[in-house]
Amino acid sequence: MLACLTDYLSLCRVTAAIGYLFLLLFSFFITVYTACFNGSCQVLDSCSQATDCGPGLYCGNCPALGKSQPFCTRGQAIVPTSIVGGLPFNKYSWLMTHNSFSIVDAPSLQGVQRLTFYNQEDTVTNQLMNGVRGLMLDMYDFNGDIWLCHSFRGQCFNFTAFQPAINTLREVETFLSQNPSEIVTIVIEDYVHTPKGLSNLFLNAGLDKYWFPVSKMPKKGEDWPTVNEMVQANHRLLVFTSVASKEAEEGIAYQWKYIIENEAGDPGVKPGSCPNRKESRPLNSKSASLFLMNYFPSYPVETEACKEHSAPLADMISTCFKAAGSMMPNFLAVNFYMRSDGGGVFYDLDSMNGQRLCGCNTIAACQAGAPFGSCKNITMPSSSPMTNTAGGFSGSVQFSKSASTIYYPNQFAIGFFSIPWMLFLL
């Protein structure tokens, strides 16, 4: 009788174990079945590959903030004029890329190993398609032409050269021709000494037909024409140079006559401080109606950018807003613009445009034609992504081929270029 009871209890234990195992398997399959995939994942949802994330997102991570598991991250800006249009150009905030041409994995056209800093990870065409509307380009006389070069001492070398400037300008021309309601701004760090070099360059690139004339630019801090007026006149390309004499010589606007600007490099990312660049008028002068906010460290490192584009960026925007006498930046210039802990520069731009255009905490809450402060109810993602051990960091399908893993060029350059005169590379 005791033996029978023992056998019965053993059978019960086996049956219970099988039942428990079945429940675990059922729970697993339910979890897998309900997990997002194939483009259905939203911001901060876990992902295992780029195709898991929805439109405008990519599968990334942020180890610098302890977020090593992959999750969906913003990769595109909301173009503010698509929601609130018809206002003066200077009433909007736009995303600008610092050294837009200095792209990780860009092939060397000089047959030598390039030795310089890198600041971006995708093509200028892709930057524009992702909502970037401002480009910082360093132009030099080189090899009998004008080149984009990330160099120093006003001279381009074969190991700091990227490509002829006309190649990038033709990308801009293609974008403008295919997007007839978009406006692009180019800020040139100018080392071109060839007479009429820049004006001929833009003419040869086919960009002269989009040129916003200097004569129509406000000189005393007044409002710019409305974006609608600029589009109707086809004045959709603003070009600024760092050389004052070229305004009279070539009709290219002198940057600091129309733009106030905070200090670039490490002074521009120091918490609680937003000093003006020495070439610029004081930030609170009100004598210029455009404000370019530089936000990038002196030595760019891809893996740190997601951390830089989190809470510190929002804090610095607030600091610079106050330093400029409650003037919101019109351009936010950053490195590695797609790197973030979820929303990054895109959320901050949404917030800037929302506050200034409709009195809402994000541009996505604005309603065209509604009274100021009338906002849609928008649910924002939580601050921490779900965790998932599946998959690895896939990078973005929009990054260059190895941007998710290549950190060596900048790390090597930091050591080599730590000499003070190399700060000209900014």
From TrEMBL:
<dbReference type="InterPro" id="IPR017946">
    <property type="entry name" value="PLC-like_Pdiesterase_TIM-brl"/>
</dbReference>
<dbReference type="GO" id="GO:0006629">
    <property type="term" value="P:lipid metabolic process"/>
</dbReference>
<feature type="transmembrane region" description="Helical">
    <location>
        <begin position="12"/>
        <end position="33"/>
    </location>
</feature>
<keyword id="KW-0812">Transmembrane</keyword>
<keyword id="KW-1133">Transmembrane helix</keyword>
<dbReference type="InterPro" id="IPR051057">
    <property type="entry name" value="PI-PLC_domain"/>
</dbReference>
<keyword id="KW-0472">Membrane</keyword>
<dbReference type="GO" id="GO:0008081">
    <property type="term" value="F:phosphoric diester hydrolase activity"/>
</dbReference>
<dbReference type="Pfam" id="PF26178">
    <property type="entry name" value="PI-PLC_cat"/>
</dbReference>
<protein>
    <recommendedName>
        <fullName>Phosphatidylinositol-specific phospholipase C X domain-containing protein</fullName>
    </recommendedName>
</protein>
